[in-house]
Amino acid sequence: MAQLKAAGARAISLKVDLRDEKACRAMADDAAAQLGRLDILVNNAGMNIRKPPQDLTLEDWREVMDTNLTSAFIASQAAYPHLKRAGRGKIINVGSMMSIFGGGYLAPYAASKGGIVQLTKSLAAAWAKDNIQVNAVLPGWIDTAMTQRARVELTGLNERVLSRTPAGRWGEPADLAGIAVFLCASASDFVTGTAIPVDGGYSVQG
Q1: What pLDDT, in 10s, does the model give residues 133-150?
Q2: pLDDT for res 150
């Protein structure tokens, strides 16, 4: 927020439970009202519960799915009328390498992130006629608070990631900036329904 304001942008902050349909609709309405219109939606809510699948409770499953996948659906629904009214729009859904691969301790997370890709394709097909492009970005192993915890919890993770990643390093959050800017810009107006890995080559290893 401070960085946006320092760059001369008008910025607001809205606290919302993204799993709540009414709250998401209010968020989209408030943002459009305060800023004049809605152009771009980035669905980036995410969490994980690391357990083997036999130990997961239904509550665990629903918490991860609602946070990671259902929130993207209802936020996109909430944004849609504003984007349609503007005559154009961009939606970026943030997936994961687990949109492609499975993980023994990641069943609900992988299912939710796989669902993100299929949701992206479906929304792209439905809303292309409204000049709304919907794409997904699939971050690889990015150095964040979540993956730092994973390295503590999963012995040998750091070494496995480095050995499999052709770039030879963990990603940084800034590595996602370029693709996000492209997908938000008019340069990507004929790009929709894609799922683009940003992973230093991790996924090309098969």
Answers
A1: 999 999 999 998 878 888
A2: 82
* Cβ within 8 Å of residue 11, ≥6 positions away: 1, 4, 5
Stated pTM of the model: 0.92
Cβ neighbours for 71, distance < 8 A, ≥ 6 positions apart: 18, 19, 24, 43, 45
Per-residue tokens: 95? 């997936």
Q: What angle do CA 137, 91, 28 make, to 5 degrees?
A: 135
Question: How far apart (Å, rounded) are the C-alpha atoms in residues 21 and 74?
Answer: 6
Contacts of 34 (CB under 8 A, 6+ apart): 12
Q: Measured in whole angstroms, how far is the alpha carbon of residue 138 from the centre of its chain?
A: 8
Residue 200 Rama label (left phi>0; alpha psi -120 to 50; beta): left
Residues recognised as catalytic = 109
d(CA 62, CA 39): 30
